[in-house]
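Chapter review: from sequence to fold.
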Amino acid sequence: MKRLYHISILVLIVVGSSFCLSAQDSHLSMYYATPNLLNPAMTGRHSDAYYRAHIHYRSQWFGLMPNPFTTMAASFDKSYRKFGFGVYVKNTKAGIGGYNVMDVLISGAYDIINDPLKVHHFSAGMQLGFVQKNINSANFTYDNQYSKDYNGGDFDQSISSNEFFATETVLLPELNFGLYYYRTDKNKMWNPYGGLSAFHLTTPEETFLGVKNDLPMRFIGFGGASLKLNWLYRVDANFQIMRQGNVNDIALGALVYYEPEREDVGFFIGPYYRYQDALQIHTGIEYGEFTIRVAYDLTTSDLRSVNKKQGGVELGITYTKHKGKYIPSIF
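The token string follows.
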């Protein structure tokens, strides 16, 4: 019964995220690996590269339910002089209720600073697109449907729930904006970066129940620095502060990179921590123009007693077409 209670709480969180003013977007542990999703101003802002393609996958709470929460994303961005252009698609499935969210956006950014040395960059960016949300209300169960005589104690969906859904699909316009600064001075031991971004600027109205309900704006502050220790090692430390409605999400960590003289091979590993939620281990390899990242969450909240600390697993693969390199391209 304790396990059933926690599963019920999780389902309520998902459904509540669709119906209530405190709705929350999905989050990623490797937030730094998906710049287009993190800040529109980071679109096309990759030094010494023509373009970048990325795919991402996250699954969480797989120890609690047969249909775990999954997020999949794909993005592409390209630089052209001081401009950046891109597109991304993200899809999130949540639980047995059939809750599904799909984001489709185009991105644009512009480097505002006119630095003759091209080491200081300050860009502004915008995203425009739509968000589609779906549910399957036939999969929901309610307290008044629980019967101790049904299958030895279970939810009997033949009992009327007396719940009404005005629609099972909502389509929302999406408008996002961001600012981003970064330094790319190869003569410096460390190079800082950071930015601010805002999502759902139009606070579109979303509801499945036919009542007024606005999607609150989401704000992200992101920053860090890359520190070159010597010819073999560097450290990249960063943080993310996210707020939506009255809920905060704070994460920080660092990766230690091992990059020997052979430039097309590298390795990195490091710890991350999401405040009052999870301790994470991030690792990966760099080979040629590919970067493969893996992260695993160890739950530190009260939920760890139910999910056996199995918070989530994440995988990201990035292909970056570098300038001046003659490694065969896949595009």
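Two observations follow directly from the output. The mean pLDDT is 85. The helical segments are 2-19, 35-38, 304-307.
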